[in-house]
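I am still getting used to backbone structure tokens and would like to learn alongside you. Would you supply a protein for us yourself, any chain you care to pick? Start from the sequence, derive the backbone structure tokens from it, and show both lines together. Go ahead whenever you are ready, and we will take it from there.
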Amino acid sequence: MRIMIGAAALALLAAATARAEVTDAQPAGFQVRHQVVIAAPAAAVWGVLVQPSKWWSSAHTWSGSAANLSLGAASGGCFCERLPNGGSVLHMTTVHAAPGQKLVLSGGLGPLQSSGATGAMTILLTEKDGATTVTVTYDVGGYFKGGLDKLAAPVDGVLGQQVQGLKTAVEAR
């Protein structure tokens, strides 16, 4: 019985700290959504958010190192990555930046870059009682051979890792 109660308590704790879901998945597009509460004010979350080298997983970069990532948090800014030998990758472009409140990026991550698909990622920060709820929504549409619906779950998993990385980086400060 104690094990069941402990497992239930863990499940409730996990649900309270992070929520993730594929909200829609069709051959022509999908939407994934993540929400996490970070024990820090929105200004502190923003300060780390705009430095992806501090929280993005190196395993999900082309160069193999998150240290090569940067983010221009102003309209027209670049979520970019430096590659060896002078190469580079433009992952997404900033289309809306409201410090401490909202960041909207446009583009395709990972395998979406070499397809006819693109997406809009909206990151909302809502502060209450010194904690910040971060809601990340990624809407993807366009052409991807075999259908975008097949990428929804893997993209959801990778994005979830990044959102958790943001939480960990901010709370470790």
